Amino acid sequence: MNQQVQKDTLYVGGLAEEVNESILHAAFIPFGEIKDVKTPLDQATQKHRSFGFVTFLEKEDATAAMDNMDGAELYGRVLTVNYALPERIKGGEQGWAAQPLWADADTWFERQQQEEEMKRLQAENEAAMKAAEELHRKKVAEERDGEKEEETEATDPMAIAEAEALKSSQ
Questions:
Q1: Each residue of 122-141: b (16+ CB within 10 Å) or e?
Q2: How many CB atoms lie within 10 A of CB 148?
Q3: The RRM domain covers which part of the protein (predicted)?
Q4: What is the pLDDT of residue 152?
């Protein structure tokens, strides 16, 4: 999946438990004006998930902060700082996409109709193949029966006698 990075927003990984949004803000403010700081919370523990996002007003400030803070230590933990990928919401053709869940509803219905049509065509094709196989079996069986009758007539003494009697009576 090829996504554009947001050059004004940084991903900051490796945060210590003690770090909150105000501490993260204070650590990154020397590099320029900050628009937003987020530390997503774990739903179960209500603590941040060891990473956060810092959004600068200027892309150059974000670049300077990344260059200086990647590998730096904060509260005894080494930080990983990269450009952030755009925020994603659930939905779309690939499962996760920057579009609402209902955006691909038309294509979903279209895909469902195509799948149903394919199943119908496959069922018709299978039925035709079975009919063709059955016809072939009958034909082979009839040919075998015909060959057996010819063999029987040629080797059966009664059949030979009948055939000769018919010939002589004519």
A1: eeeeeeeeeeeeeeeeeeee
A2: 10
A3: 8-86
A4: 56
Q: How many CB atoms lie within 10 A of CB 55?
A: 16
- Convert the pLDDT of each residue in 13-39 to its tens digit: 999 999 999 999 999 999 999 999 999
Contacts of 105 (CB under 8 A, 6+ apart): none
119 is written with which tokens?
């199943």
